[in-house]
Design goal:
By secondary structure, the protein is an alpha+beta fold. The protein has three domains: 371 residues, no CATH class; 88 residues, Alpha-Beta Plaits (2-Layer Sandwich), CATH 3.30.70; 77 residues, 2-Layer Sandwich (Alpha-Beta Plaits), CATH 3.30.70. The strands form two sheets. Strands 3-2-4-1-5 form a five-stranded antiparallel sheet. Strand 7 and strand 8 form a beta hairpin. Helix 5 runs antiparallel to helix 6. The longest helix has 24 residues. The two termini are 31 Å apart. It is a multi-pass membrane protein. It is found in: Membrane. InterPro entries: Cit_transptr-like_dom (IPR004680), DASS-Related_Transporters (IPR051679), Na/sul_symport_CS (IPR031312), RCK_C (IPR006037), RCK_C_sf (IPR036721).
Length: 590
């Protein structure tokens, strides 16, 4: 009994830390695993068994395959067709959400969204339709698509492995399709007919051509012969007003240098481009002796040119920027890039960015060399909001990865090999044939998810081996003694759905699966419908932006507040949850 209390306390503490999001979820999971090992509730020979689990390997392989398909331009080819849908808002909604759902059934949800968001922004800019009407439905569509196949989302792979551990065959590739496809269609139809009315009408961070109104903070100043600031470094100049001014560019001897180094010294007849509000600018001019050099075309001339451009990007959930400030980044010194503006939940933050700590979902506006900016976003874990050039110049670039992926699906569907073997072999073949470089192989894997799964799977096993899962199941059975079994199935599904809105959906599946199995065994019912309920519930976190990265990615570009998600997410959750229970009972009888 004491072991049940120990594992319960460990998991409750981990759950609280997941919700608070103070530390990354993979770190929390590892700490919980180590505490479980030290306390003895996780057996010594099981401590790191999760990292060799078939589910973990399969998730890693699917991530590699998704990245290869993404980089080959498979999704780009579909997205390119969407440019022909015209300006009708409903038609745009149907087309974008449908394609996103389809792509998410076979590849990583976030990868599909990273391609589709710029397409949506482009369509909204050309048509004038509010971008907020498209992005949240697209994000929810990506979650619905994950329910359709085994490889659509990690919870499905995890649940298949739980079924294998029960002594049966794991769920196969299309075992999820009868329920998942029905749920996805019900959700999409609701979004098309009624859901878009529940989404706020906002333009988000999409400001058209005014670039966050950055021009109102740009000023060009001239350095006269007797200016007091001559020979000072640019860092010293910025400190004249406590760092509240930013030197964005230097024009010297008819050469323009964007993002000049802080240690560079000011010379007579230099021209500087500054970013500051009016009050700070006046203080700076008085202290430095520099003069205004007004130019009405300054913003247009400075922000973009043949080699220089501006680009927006969303900070991802695992970005290296989270918790850091603009002053920490040293973008100008290290990368020759200027941070011009930051938008949060669709609202531009004040121009003095030095001490602002970045959060997931913030939208950054960067200026610099065109070839450099894409690499900067990738380096820092951000998703560019600019449409990529199509990567489908050669048909073989698309056909080869699609052919390998199709062979893996066929081999798995026909039962020739198990899904873990089929998709791991597919990922390996993509490496051997040069479709993905070895360096990209490792960078394409979402390692925090892998660590999370490897750490939580032994904890889920401890939940079962200590009898804690059985005790929780007995509590559910006792509380619902007067209820029919299908009501308990619904309780499991909606409890998992609620949990997945506040913690990672893979962790929600790992924690709820043992409880679902014990509940089914207590009822004397089949375990398959209860496992399927956990898979569906874990895959559909519609209520919060933190429930899934797809939700978080659209928060800034769509201008959504935290409360906007449940307005559409709550009725959608009820609809798809009830639909899922009915379909599960039809396909997987109790």
């Amino acid at each position: 009994m004491i072991d049940q209390w120990i594992i319960g306390i460990i998991l409750l503490a981990a759950l609280l830390l997941f919700i608070l999001d103070y530390w990354r979820y993979d770190l929390v999971a590892m700490m919980a695993l180590l505490i479980g090992a030290i306390s003895g509730v996780v057996p010594e020979d099981k401590i790191f068994s999760g990292f060799g689990n078939a589910a973990v390997i399969t998730v890693a392989a699917v991530l590699v395959i998704s990245h290869t398909l993404w980089s080959a331009g498979v999704v780009d080819a579909l997205a390119n067709l969407l440019g022909r849908v015209g300006n009708n808002a409903l038609l745009q909604l149907v087309a974008l959400s449908s394609v996103t759902t389809l792509c998410s059934a076979f590849m990583n949800n976030v990868g599909a969204m990273a391609i589709m968001i710029p397409i949506a922004l482009k369509l909204c800019r050309s048509s004038g339709n509010p971008v907020s009407k498209l992005l949240m439905p697209m994000a929810f569509g990506s979650l619905l698509g994950g329910c359709i196949t085994l490889i659509g989302t990690p919870p499905n792979i995890i649940i298949a492995d739980f079924r294998r551990n029960l002594g049966g065959e794991p769920f196969q590739l299309f075992d999820f399709t009868p329920v998942g496809l029905g749920v996805a269609l019900a959700g999409l139809i609701f979004i098309w007919l009624l859901g878009h009315l529940l989404v706020p009408s906002r333009t988000g961070s999409d400001k058209g051509d005014n670039l966050y109104d950055i021009a109102e903070y740009l000023t060009e100043v001239y350095v006269p012969e007797q200016a007091g600031g001559i020979n000072k470094t640019f860092y010293e100049l910025e400190q004249l007003v406590g760092g509240k001014i930013q030197i964005l560019a230097l024009v010297r001897d008819e050469q323009r240098l964007p993002a000049p180094a802080p240690y560079q010294r000011l010379r007579a007849e230099d021209i500087l481009v500054l970013k500051a509000d009016a009050e700070t600018l006046k203080t700076f001019l008085d202290a430095s002796g520099l003069e205004l050099n007004a130019d009405e075309q300054l913003a247009e001339r400075f922000l973009t040119s043949k080699d220089i451009t501006v680009m927006e990007g969303v900070i991802g959930h695992d970005s290296r920027l989270i918790g850091r400030s603009a002053a920490d980044l040293k973008l100008r010194r290290g990368y020759g890039v200027n941070l011009l503006a930051v938008a949060r939940e669709g609202y531009k933050l004040p121009p003095n960015l030095a001490n602002i700590r970045f959060k997931p979902g913030d939208v950054l506006l960067l200026q610099g060399d065109k070839d450099t900016l894409a690499g900067i976003f990738e380096r820092f874990g951000c998703y560019p909001l600019a449409e990529r050039p199509l990567r489908i110049g050669k048909h073989t670039r698309v056909i080869r990865p699609l052919a390998l992926f199709g062979l893996a699906i066929l081999a798995s569907a026909l039962g020739l090999v198990s899904p873990p073997v089929a998709f791991t072999a597919c990922a390996g073949a993509m490496v051997l044939t040069g479709l993905i470089r070895l360096r990209e192989l490792y960078s394409s894997i979402d390692w925090p998810i892998i660590v999370l799964l490897g750490a939580t799977l032994p904890l889920g096993g401890a939940l079962e081996s200590t009898g804690a899962a059985a005790s929780l199941a007995q509590l559910i059975l006792t509380s619902g003694a007067a209820l029919a079994p299908f009501w308990l199935l619904g309780i499991i599904l909606f409890a998992t759905m609620l949990l997945s809105n506040v913690i990672n959906n893979a962790a929600a599946a790992v924690l709820m699966a043992p409880i679902a199995i014990s509940t089914a065994q207590g009822l004397g019912a089949a375990t398959d419908p209860f496992l399927m309920a956990v898979a569906i519930g874990a895959s559909l976190p519609f209520l919060t932006p933190i429930g899934h990265q797809s939700n978080l990615l659209v928060m800034g570009p769509g201008g959504y507040a935290f409360k906007d998600y449940w307005k559409l997410g709550l009725p959608l959750s009820v609809l798809v949850g009830c639909t899922a229970v009915i379909l599960i009972l039809l396909v997987w009888p109790l």
